[in-house]
Every structure is written in C-alpha cells, then in structure tokens.
Amino acid sequence: MYEKLFSPGRIGTLTIPNRIAMTAASASLSQPDGTMTEEMLAYYEARAKGGVGLIITEMVSVDQERGVLFPRELNGDREESVDSFRQLADRVHPYGTKLFAQLFHPGANADPKLNALPLLSASPARGKKRGQAEEATREDIAAIVQKFGQAARRVKEGGFDGIEVHAAHHYFLHSFLSPVTNHRTDEYGGSLENRARILGEIVAAIRATCGRDFPLMFRISLEEYIGPKGYHADTGIKICQMLEAWGVDAINVTASGTDSKLSQSVEPMYYPQGWRKHLAKAVKGTVSIPVLSVALIRDPAYAERLLEEGVLDFAASVRAHLADPQWAEKARTGRERDILPCISCMACFAKYDVEGHITCAVNPETGYEAHLPPLRRDGDGRLVVVLGAGPAGLEGAWMAARRGFRVILFEQAQEAGGQLRLAALAPRKEKILWLRDSLLHRCRQAGVELRLGHAPTVEELAALAPYAILDATGSRPAVPASIPGAQDSPLVCTPPQILTGAVDVREESVVVVGSGMTGLETAEYLSARERNNAVLVLEAAPRLAPGVQGSNRNGVTAVLEINNVVLLTSRTLTRVGTDRVWFADSQTGEEYVYPCDRVVLALGTVPSRPYGDALSGACPKVIALGDAVQGGQIWDAIHQGYHGALSL
Fold this sequence. Notes:
alpha/beta; about 20% strand
C-alpha cells in the first residue's frame, strides 16, 4: 500500500529495509552506570519487532565526568560499554532493523549533581539543570573531540550499524554553532566556519576510529526559532553543506532547542502534522545525501506523501513508536485504523519525575515491556459492566474484552468520550479526538456492547448480575464552598460551561481562577479576538501553571501574551461578589479588589459519584477508575483503565 515507505533506503554503505526511522528520546531505562538492562533491551526490541527500519538510540554520553544529563542514560565513555552495546544489537538485528547510537554531550545542560567536573560550553552559560558552565578551553575541546571518536569505536565494536552525532537543541556542539551561546574570539568563534570547526574535527575523529565506510549522520537544528539573535535556515543549510563536504552520510533535520516559547524541539499538541517539513525540504534541495526529519509525522499516509513529494528520504518519529511499537507493521499490512495514535500530549516526558523513565499516555505498556506477563484470557464470558465512556472506561472496556469477558459499556451522554470530548473543545486540541476515536474502534473491534445515552439504575445493574463493575463515572468541576460567594454568585461559571458554549461570554471582563492547562486553555478561548474579552488569570502558586509540562505551558502562554491576557501569580481568590472579586497576595496577605463581569473557576475536579456507595449492592466487585477516584490527566485515566481491567 505504501510503496515509498516500505522501499529500502541507504545511508552511506548501509541498506535499511524501509524508510521508517525511530529517532532518539531519553528512555532512562539503563543501569546507573549507563549499561543495558532488560528493560532497555525489551523496549527497543519491541520497536524492532514492530517493523521499524532504523532505530536511533537515546542519547549516549561520551563524557562520564561532565557530560551526564540523566541518572540512567547510556554511556559510551568506558570500554565496558562494548559488551553492553552488543546486547542491544543482538536483540534488534534478528528483526532486520538497523541500529545507530546517538552520541552527544549536553554541555551546560548537563546535571551538575551527576558530574564530577565543572560543566563546559562554548562560552560561559547557565544550563537547563541550573548548572553554571565554564568556557571550554582548546584542550577541553580536543579532549571531547577524541571522546566522540572513542565512543564511536566502542559502538562499532558493539555491533551497531552506524552513528548519529547530536549537534542540535543547544547541547554542547550546538552551543558552538549558535551566535546566542558562542561569544568566543578564537578559532572556534566568530564566523560560521569557525563556529562549525568542532563538527569537522569530530567527523575526522570518528573516521579515524571507525573508517570511511561506517555510516555517520548528524542531527542539526536547521532553525533556532528564537528571534533575530539566533541563526536561521540559511545558516542551517550552510552547516549541512559543510557536513556533506566533510563526508557525513546523512542529515537528521530538527529545529530549536532552547527555552524560548517560540522554540519547540519536541512539539506539544498545538502543532499540526508536518508543521516544519519545509526545513527538511530545504536541506533535501541543497545536499545530495539522505535527509531524515521528525516533521511531526503521525499518519503512514502522510509519511508516504512526504516521501513522494521529495521532502525527505526517511520518515522519522519517536513518539509515534512510543504510542504504538507496531506502527510500521500495522501500516505495512493495511491496519492503519488499529494504530494507537500519538496525540502529542507530552506525557512521555512529563511523567519522568514520577515514573523515573519514559512512558506513554495512550500506551500503558511503553517503558514496562520487560515486565509484561502474557495477557490472561480467562474472562470465560463473564459479564463486566463499565460505567462511563471516558478514557478510563473505554480503555478498561476493551482490555477486559480482550481478556475474554463479556463487556457492556454504559454512558449517560449520547456520545462517547467523556472528558476527551470536552478537552478537544479547547483551542488547537483536536488531536485528542484521535484518541477518542481509536478507543472506540478498539472497543467495537473487541466486541464491547456500547449503550450510549443511558445511565442504568442500581436495580438494573443488579439484574444484570455482573462479575465486576468498572466505575469510570468521571468528575465534575470543583466549586469550593470554602470561598465565600463561589457557589451562589451570578458571576461564577466553570470551564465546561465556557467551552461547550452553555455560557457565551463576549465583550466582558473575565477572571479565570487557576492556571492549570484547563484554566490556561479556557483563557485562550475567551481571549480570542472575535470574543473581545479582557481576561485576567489568577494563580495561587508563585509560578504559573505549576506541574504543567514546559512545552505545553509555553504553547499556550505564548498565545495568551499576544492576546493581552494578564497573568498574576501568588494570588489567591478570597471572595466572589455580584460584580467583583477579592483576592490576596499568597505571600504577604495583602488583599485586592477587582470589578469584573464573569469568574471562571478552573480549580480542578472532584469525583461525580452519581451512585454514591450503592454500587456494592449491585455487585461485590467494584473497581473505580480515573476521575472517579481523583481528577487527573489522560495518562492517569488510560493507565488506571488498563490496570483495572488486568486486575479483574
């Protein structure tokens, strides 16, 4: 079906069985010393088994003394790594998949707590992990160049098929390329030729240790997207042309990598598929070596189109393969509808601090492959009733059906989706419906009986005599009784009322209380030009959007600033009147008054519990899922639905 996508491709001397590449993302599944674990091996093996043509590993540190970014990342700076690399090659190669290691040095962005020596950058800089980097001396540069060469040798000896050098996203090498971070006056600063000198030296070092025939690719931020101080695609193209002249075999085109709100190296949901394909096309039109690009590709048909149009030579993604390790095989066999879609929700990275490694919101098995027992198919036709067709209920229903249970799914609304339908009403969030549609497809495919538009009584449930009930009845907006006026003021409404149009707000002064994603997205909706509202957002915490993943936060606040939304932190709502609100400085207690026409309380949710404690009277086995337990995100709902069904 996809002739281009499943045709062989070449990088240097290497033939790759198809044009599908899984790019690098930090999985943090290795041992603390950077060697393999069964978790890491199983994670990559699942993607190879799923038909990916090329896997580029997560970042492999070349400097164990001042080049460590995460506690559990692969390490190429010791001889013991050779055997570790060989373990991975042996797990991936039986499926025909080719394997590259991504060599990198984080520079100023290294974690100072994980490194014994002071951090280095092209010029003195402060990194994302709050480390202060010194300017690398010529001796430091020469040492790091040789570390790249030696790490490449170890990778080759470990049976890998090639190397990718990470020279993007404002890590060490990109810090030399960018005029924002390179203020040197020696031979490594000033002109582009000088700033790119270190890349040429690394090419020479890798060729010296691995030979001319070992495939070598560079990842380059073609455009920094940080305004006039950064470099742009014209400069990025020159860098790519230099790399080709030095004998590099392929270019992986990416972009940006700073904290600027305009700069997204890993895009959140707001970006359309293929939004930066023009960057890959620009490189493809100016070099003769193969071009890869992560152009936010989610759909096999779209990947095929980019290949047909000559935009790129390999369709690259990592998050698509986190969501569905079988993405390639399902595309090859005409089962596109079965693909679990990545919705770019950023949970894969946002959940690092909680889970300690990479995970996925739509696929609860990602990152846990080594610990997955065979799916028990012991339902024996016993009845499981699921209450609520939100993400937790849909996930629980299809998983229970896969286990052989007979499943009836009740939803009081006429349409399935629950909180997914509401979330998709926010500006630029339509990808959420991909997940809703996928969950519905899986339920129907698994034989789940859907009963929409009906909320059964306890008596009806008891008459069905179910083996178990999965309670996914969801939540409602929190309207705290502790805030005087919150429950009886005519000013007060909630985000669902705004987003569904139940309350149509135009040309009003609006206060949004709470700066979580729901609050920020509601503020964006209200501040659209055609609505002509003046919007003020209050946040009790000292920082805007506490707990929200940075790319998601930046993607909204950039628009809010354009729309002149006022964002106040350390402000706690204390009282709501009939034409004004009162709020206090969370730190000093000083109180303020603010006249307004509308107050939107975006203070989270509380479980709806429409049945109270009565469900146990209909069935002794009741398992609450998702928002019916506690308000959470898509990741929480899907994972609870999955594990709830497995626990039956």
